[in-house]
């Protein structure tokens, strides 16, 4: 499927001249060598008002970004896994407050880090079980090896979990190994970006009785018409190369290690970051969310469930600055809360953004991003392949440029 603008900007409340600022701004990133190439999609009220591509999907091979280029979306997989879990929730398979050990017995007796080094940690028993909503909201106490911020992060790296998993392990085996590592904090007491959504993917497998790739393909991708989204792809011709910033210059240089991810069928179905997709496919996913769980007559979630997912679940309705750990994530913390699978904008003034209260969003490690604004009925998508996503203020600038063009 190829996306093309199907509405005049003015019909959707946008100023056409102001919309052109988006492409001019991000073209400079490419022309200055900071990004390889990109693809941008903006919609309002379900109408495509701006679709553009620029630069190269593979600089060395001189291959341009095409409308059907495939991208590693990394953590933009997390909302898909969260939708899968909430579909099972709607079927009565579990309550959000249920301990996950009911289905994943390896998490029956988690230990929590107290003090000490990665080689000699002191731990204590968890006073609260890890519950389903803890996984969905990243309040489980789990972590990521790539944070490099805590002794438990180092323990993850020692176990082979930094940007992926040890070779040959499937999701079940990964879950068992994660359960043997201590938690960073007592479940529910803080927010920490983590492998929570990967564990949630394992929960989906056990509860549904299907491998995660099959559940996604049969229950989400086929109904929504997302034919180009999967765990890995054999179509390497369309797959964009991955780049990292060169130290000092920040110029985009090719990275073969990251480039190997997303090629072929993986042993480990990462519900937190394993999908490859296209702009057209993820556009359909955002429209399904904007339409509160339905697209083209197919309903996967009820409107009330989508509203619950897009509500702030941090205790006391605080933002991430107050409740989260100050480390790498796919967004700033000020003014943003967290729902069940997405960030949630609480206070645009505190966040210093033009977006609307209630906007929900997330991004991926290769600088991809999306948001859904249910107030203005705006969705936006940005695709590129530069790791890490914190290299440039792409997401903040995209919001500024989209909303300054909205003049209705």
From TrEMBL:
InterPro entries: Beta-lactam-related (IPR001466), Beta-lactam/transpept-like (IPR012338), Diverse_Enzym_Activities (IPR050789). Residues 22-400 form the Beta-lactamase-related domain. Pfam families: Beta-lactamase. Gene3D superfamilies: DD-peptidase/beta-lactamase superfamily. This is Beta-lactamase family protein. The lineage of its organism: Bacteria, Bacillati, Actinomycetota, Actinomycetes, Pseudonocardiales.
């Amino acid at each position: 499927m190829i996306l093309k603008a199907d509405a005049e900007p003015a019909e959707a409340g946008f100023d056409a001249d102001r919309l052109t600022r988006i492409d001019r701004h991000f073209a400079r990133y490419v022309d200055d060598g900071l990004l390889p190439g990109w693809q941008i999609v903006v919609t309002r009220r379900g109408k495509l008002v701006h679709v553009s591509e620029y630069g190269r999907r593979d600089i060395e091979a001189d291959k341009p970004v095409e409308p059907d280029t495939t991208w590693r979306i990394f953590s933009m997989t997390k909302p898909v896994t969260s939708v899968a879990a909430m579909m099972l929730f709607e079927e009565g398979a579990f309550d959000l407050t249920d301990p996950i050990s009911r289905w994943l017995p390896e998490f029956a007796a988690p230990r929590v880090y107290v003090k000490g080094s990665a080689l000699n940690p002191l731990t204590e028993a968890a006073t609260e079980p890890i519950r389903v909503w803890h996984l969905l909201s990243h309040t489980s106490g789990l972590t990521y090896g790539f944070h490099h911020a805590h002794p438990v992060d180092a323990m993850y790296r020692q176990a082979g979990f930094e940007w992926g998993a040890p070779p040959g392990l499937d999701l079940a085996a990964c879950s068992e190994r994660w359960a043997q590592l201590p938690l960073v904090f007592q479940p529910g007491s803080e927010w920490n970006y983590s492998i929570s959504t990967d564990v949630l993917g394992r929960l989906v497998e056990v509860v549904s009785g299907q491998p995660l790739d099959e559940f996604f393909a049969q229950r989400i991708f086929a109904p929504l018409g997302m034919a180009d989204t999967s765990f890995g792809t054999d179509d390497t011709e369309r797959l964009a190369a991955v780049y990292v910033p060169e130290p000092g210059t920040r110029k985009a240089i090719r990275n073969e290690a990251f480039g190997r991810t997303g090629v072929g069928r993986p042993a480990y179905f990462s519900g937190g970051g394993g999908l490859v997709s296209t702009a057209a496919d993820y556009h359909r996913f955002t429209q399904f969310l904007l339409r509160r769980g339905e697209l083209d007559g197919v309903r996967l979630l009820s409107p009330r469930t989508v509203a619950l997912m897009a509500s702030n679940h941090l205790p006391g309705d605080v933002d991430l600055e107050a409740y989260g750990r100050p480390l790498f994530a796919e967004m700033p913390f000020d003014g943003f809360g967290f729902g069940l699978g997405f960030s949630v904008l609480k206070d645009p003034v505190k966040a210093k953004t033009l977006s609307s209260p209630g906007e929900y969003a997330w991004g991926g490690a290769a600088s991809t991003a999306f948001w859904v604004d249910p107030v203005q009925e705006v969705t936006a998508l940005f695709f590129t392949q530069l790791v890490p996503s914190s290299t440039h203020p792409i997401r903040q600038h995209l919001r500024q440029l989209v909303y300054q063009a909205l003049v209705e």
